[in-house]
Design goal:
Strand order of the largest sheet: 2-3-4
Oligomer: single chain
Structural class: mainly alpha
CATH architecture of one domain: Orthogonal Bundle
Distance between the termini: 46 Å
Low-confidence stretches: 1-28
Mean pLDDT: 90
Radius of gyration: 22 Å
Number of strands: 7
Bound molecules: fe (ii) ion
Strand content: 5-15%
Number of helices: 13
Shape: globular
Helix content: 55-70%
CATH superfamily of one domain: Ribonucleotide Reductase, subunit A
């Protein structure tokens, strides 16, 4: 199949009801919806989006056969990593029970504990929760992948069974964090809900090209990234004395770890069957950079909301550029990329590139950090009623 590319035109979109200032491009390639002429509100919905060439169906069709032939393997190695529903935790296990006599007392205790947590912590927890809440986007993204998508919505291939059950497990994450945040009374739920609606409407652009090699490299990276960040929100909650919230975040982190195990296993198998193709896909994803799933985040106010949220997460040590380099280093070791032999010229170039990348990222990051520290500033976050937070 020929590589198809289409260009998303950089036009000024319309966005009914938006009250914002002038339209502009942030982060070089992300376009946010513009302000709208109030008299002319019947404009079509146009969400923030990336402006770059969108490549589709980059995996040669003969490689789809690999995924067909791996169905029994997936059943025996991937589906076993799912937990039976009856053995899964549910959000209600960690929240005040509204049917119990002590409900009000439990809510009061939750609110007392959450008072110990600072505003900047809440900004990161909200951003993490919104990222989880945009789950419809991630299920859609996985179902764009050739050879593994759920063709009917109830397909019986192990790939489709995995994706639905993975989604169902993930669905508890946003649900639990949302209910905790709602009960805490510390955040502006309406602004948060708006941000989630904007984000799901915007989708994401991970540049995985309908290609399951790229798609599962992306999900391997992301599951580990969320394992790390939820682990860090757990650690900080504990430091601030909220043991219940620490337990919530830690429990979510352990799900992410299990999902990481599944996705990295798929890529490990691809390295075994097709080392040359897989290492080139890994290099391709890393050259394009792994964009975070919520990179099109917007709350109706802040054009650079995702960058601001990321800066606070970086400052608090919840998810940092060092983590990004560490994840890559971990995956390179996990897949034994350095030991690959018999590669083509292109394959060897890709191998050298990814193996040398983590120290390069760290060096660049140290310089960027030094610059950022010099011009530290505070910005308001609508999620906490416009209070300002240092970046
Ligand atoms: Fe999650
Ligand atoms: Fe996850």
């Amino acid at each position: 199949m020929a590589l198809r590319a289409s260009f998303v035109p950089h036009k000024i979109p319309a966005f009914p009801g938006s009250q914002r200032g002038s339209h502009r491009v942030s982060m070089a390639s992300t376009v946010h919806p513009p302000s709208v002429d109030v008299k002319n509100v019947k404009k079509p919905f146009a969400p923030p989006r990336e402006v770059h060439v969108q490549v589709t169906h980059s995996m040669p069709p003969e490689k789809q056969e690999i995924f067909n032939s791996l169905q029994t393997w997936a059943e025996q190695n991937i589906l076993v990593l799912l937990k039976p529903v009856e053995k899964c935790w549910q959000p209600s296990d960690f929240l005040p029970d509204p049917a119990s006599e002590g409900f009000q007392e439990q809510v009061k205790e939750l609110r007392e504990r959450s008072k110990e947590l600072p505003d900047d912590y809440f900004v990161v927890l909200v951003g993490d929760m919104i990222t989880e809440e945009a789950l419809p986007t991630y299920q859609t993204m996985i179902n764009t992948l050739d050879g593994v998508r759920d063709d009917t919505g109830a397909s019986l291939t192990p790939w489709a069974i995995w994706t639905r059950a993975w989604t169902a497990e993930e669905n508890r994450h946003g649900d639990l964090l949302n209910k905790y945040l709602y009960l805490s009374g510390r955040v502006d739920m309406k602004q948060i809900e708006r941000t989630t609606q904007y984000l799901i409407g915007s989708g994401m652009d991970p540049r995985t090209e309908n290609n399951p090699y790229l798609g599962f490299i992306y999900t391997s990276f992301q599951e580990r990234a969320t394992f790390i960040s939820h682990g860090n929100t757990a650690r900080l909650a504990k430091e601030h004395g909220d043991m219940k919230l620490a337990q919530i975040c830690g429990t979510i982190a352990s799900d992410e770890k299990r999902h990481e195990t599944a996705y990295t296993k798929i890529i490990e198998k691809l390295f075994e069957i097709d080392p040359d193709g897989t290492v080139q896909c890994l290099a391709d994803m890393m050259r394009k950079k792994i964009t975070m799933p919520a990179h099109l985040m917007y709350d109706g106010h802040d054009d650079n909301l995702f960058e601001h949220f990321s800066a606070v997460a970086q400052r608090l040590g919840i998810y940092t550029a060092k983590d990004y380099a560490d994840i890559l280093e971990f995956l390179v070791a996990r897949w034994e990329v350095e030991k690959l032999t018999g590669l083509s010229g292109e394959g060897r170039k890709a191998q050298d590139y990814v193996c040398g990348l983590p120290p390069r990222i760290r060096r660049l990051e140290e310089r960027a950090q030094a610059r950022a520290t010099k011009k530290a500033s505070a910005v308001p976050f609508s999620w906490i009623y416009g209070r300002e937070i240092m970046l």
